[in-house]
């Protein structure tokens, strides 16, 4: 029996040694295979991205509101806006995940009021805009203040995959500078204090004057989302009205941005 122990030990040790060597070879082969499958790092200096699709056209729409709104001004419902921009996209040569967007376009804002008259022409005070509570007098069923702007947005953009803008996560921070094109109020269906229509529900009155409105606006912006759909926001840091000629109002916007090209 003792004579058989030594050969058996030799056989067992040999088997374990072969198994260990086999496992080692398998791990080495798997490691080498993983190295082969790992894609090579992209040399962006050899990739042309000048004509890539990356938000060269943007349409924004959503909710508008007034921050720091005085309690004496009765707005109602959700304000609305529509912005359309044409953009240039300039990727960084060293890292095209980042780019700068420069553009021009048109922006608009509509704020709605409840039984309120906005005296844009200054016929009441002669020196500033007035917001008149018209609950106990003739008023419009629907009444809004509209401002229209020519704007130049600038963005610092980041995209997870520079080659697939329409499928990648992206975000952007920026600012837009605007100059006012038009400012006016529009009332529809003039009613008496009891809510009875005076001239029918198709009657419309429009008053246009921007002498008290600030002609320049500056608003930081942000966007984030995937592909051609992003959520965005903007907050105007300049007052809507000229200094001393209207209340302290900071308009803001939140909405959806559709982009492409």
Break the fold down into its secondary structure elements and pairings.
Layout: H1 2-37, E1 57-67, E2 79-91, E3 98-113, E4 116-119, E5 130-133, E6 139-159, E7 169-191, E8 204-208, E9 216-226, E10 229-235, E11 250-260
Antiparallel strand pairs: 1-2, 1-11, 2-3, 3-6, 4-5, 6-7, 7-8, 7-9, 9-10, 10-11
Question: How would you explain this protein's 3D organization?
Answer:
With 261 residues, this protein is mostly beta strands. The protein contains one helix and eleven strands, in the order αβββββββββββ. It is elongated and about 95 Å long.
Strand order of the largest sheet: 1-2-3-6-7-9-10-11
Order of helices and strands: HEEEEEEEEEEE
Uncertain ranges: none
The 3D shape can be described as elongated
Find the count of extended strands (DSSP E, 2+ residues): 11
Spatial gap, N to C terminus: 85 Å
Radius of gyration: 33 Å
Strand content: over 45%
The SS-based structural class is mainly beta
Helix content: 10-25%
Largest sheet: 8 strands, antiparallel, barrel
Individual helix count? 1
Average pLDDT across residues?
88
Would you summarize the structure shown here?
The protein has 261 residues and is mainly β.
What key phrases describe this protein's structure?
single chain; 261 residues; mainly beta; 8-stranded antiparallel barrel; two-stranded antiparallel ribbon; 1 helix; 11 strands; 48% strand
